[in-house]
Design goal:
The complex is a heterodimer of chains A (113) and B (113). By secondary structure, chain A is mainly β. Helix content of chain A is 0%, strand content 50%. Chain A is globular and about 35 Å long. Chain B has 113 residues and is mainly beta. Classes of the chains: A mainly beta (113), B mainly beta (113).
Chain lengths: 113, 113
Amino acid sequence: EPEVTQTPSHQVTQMGQEVILRCVPISNHLYFYWYRQILGQKVEFLVSFYNNEISEKSEIFDDQFSVERPDGSNFTLKIRSTKLEDSAMYFCASSSTGSTEAFFGQGTRLTVV
Amino acid sequence: AQSVSQHNHHVILSEAASLELGCNYSYGGTVNLFWYVQYPGQHLQLLLKYFSGDPLVKGIKGFEAEFIKSKFSFNLRKPSVQWSDTAEYFCAVNANSWGKLQFGAGTQVVVTP
């Protein structure tokens, strides 16, 4: 069964450092997403991406965040200068259209120290 | 503001008991509704979805949910739970064509043998 894969599963980084979280969506999907879940809180939408551009983003997704689909298979989330409050589980997801179910990856646990 | 509310944050029940988890949303207009499950250490998996048609939808593992438009609700049910149903359950709503999901806070369900 096709699945969304994320790497790494766990990343520890120092405050102020840049991190790149990587995702390989399901191959025939066209819509890509990033969500995050801070420990003990709800899953929050960050950004959706379609046709090589951001289609929607939340207020969380400020100038420190960026997304890219560099090579037609990977989908990355970059945080330029990490803050302690960026510590969370980050989930990548993909869907075939904007109105069908999203398939989620296993998540990357980001710890900023 | 648009929101998704799950009534119970933590539910403990015995095997063979019936389960019902409440979900209400505050969106107007057409919505797509989902229940996702996250088993310990695993990724979010789709349990069931409602897009249109029969408001009683059946999903995997014996789960079902009923969409009641007048109550803005999409409650999840299972007549007889098993120990393996121990997981966190998330209600989610999609209200636009870009695929963005708004999640409820989640309900941690613990089934005791």
